[in-house]
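Posting this for the archive.
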Amino acid sequence: MKMPKFLCLFAAAVLLLPAAVFAGGGSQSPAQQGGSSAPSASAVKVNPTGFPIVNDPITMSVFGCRDQNQANWSDMFFFKEYEKMTNIHLDLQEVPAQGFEERKNLLFASNELPDIFVKPLINQVQFTMYGSTSKQLIPLDPYLQQWAPNINNIIQTNEAVRISQTAADGHVYVLPQLDFSNTGHMGFMQWINKTWLAKLNLKIPTTPDEFRQVLVAFRDKDPNGNGIADEIPLGIREIAAVYVLGGSWGLQHQMNDTINVNNGKVHFWIKDDTFKAYIQYLSGLYADKLLWQNYYKADSRPEWRSNLANALFGAFYMPYSDVFINVENQFEGFPPLVGPYGDQVWSASNDGITAVGAFAISNVCKYPEAALRWVDYFYTDEGSIFYRYGIEGQTFHFDAKGNAVINDNILNAPEGFMTALGKINLVPGGGGPHLITNKTDGIVASDLTKSIAADLAPYLPKVNYGRPPLNENDQERANAILQDLNKYRDESVTKFIVGDWSFDRWDEYCRTLDQIGLPELEAIYQKAFDASHR
């Protein structure tokens, strides 16, 4: 079997690691050695609450990924102002996004570690490698209750977060970015052209049949009134987005994949008859030119955006309106369709964990308590506002409804909003350690977007299960299967939808999924799910 790229890199890294890495360095606290007893006091007195975090200034080195829209971190408002509040100076070692993974791998391989990692893009595979295996990241769980009570409370009370952050050895090595806003819990939301509905005197569709009838009217009755048949009834954007409507057929997206979890059983539904019925519905839309004909083409994104900006879609799926804000007022949201089996679930949902590894502490850090106090602030309402908006009066203000609003000089900056925001904070590109709520998602979510998300929220699955961490052997095997499985699934579903394959080939498609390893993958996930839900 060909070794996955990440394992090749890890193997190379391990060969370069000094023996002290595996020996624990000789002078580490019990927590740094991988034990679970209470850690020793750090080398400086840390205030348990409030600011400053330390009375006597300290310095910690930081490594992380800088988005292309961000200023140099040493020039960023966020870091400058937070240093004043905390008395903690950061020696910032950010690396541009392009080439970041290679630099990160080399950093761990050379064992030239910073004190802390901020926005390091560490995934579950990596926190197992660098935490459980090489012990270059220290376990955080012995510290959390005392020094990071805000994120600790979330981990203890939110099962999805607890599972996602806990390695197979039972320790927590990284802290996440969390988006618990309505918009953050949805990968996509559904929009429909209310101007066209009004022009044609149509009502919001409530079932797949009614939806099809509305799409036919959009295709045939010139709702934009230009005398040209340029309307595109349903504007699905890409191959992955064809699964968005599946909740109306009972197909959820648990563990951020094509998975249902019923009564504790993990089940991939891509062979189910209900999925076949859903794909047949989409195939019928495509055959009748109700579904955008170029949705599956790799180079179609610019064309899709152009169609959206010119309001040529009757219905479509997007998480935010930022790319069509100029025509946003022509659209509205609508509830999930009631499917053929009575399901009405918006399954384009997630557990709110937008980055698993947004923060970590290395085994060379002298001030782990101070480091955790530094980051824990961002998991509060006040800290979330500071992280995302800055300081009231300088970078934002509160509107009449009490919502934080970025100042106009930043919002309408000549260089563009995201570039201007990147001078203020780490928000552009995402992946930094903090909590987003309905109070702080307005950076990218317009009022209409937030309203549509609120209307869809009651239709989300009652529980969103995150993907549980796997041990190294299972992770290697799962990645190998997923690489081939997802490629074959998407290619096959596309062929069914566009008519290249007839549905007489469905059984062959199912057999091939089994041959690739679908039953084995399901068993791997089931084992990890059972272990994390004891």
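The two ends are 33 Å apart (CA to CA). Confidence is low (pLDDT under 50) at residues 1-38.
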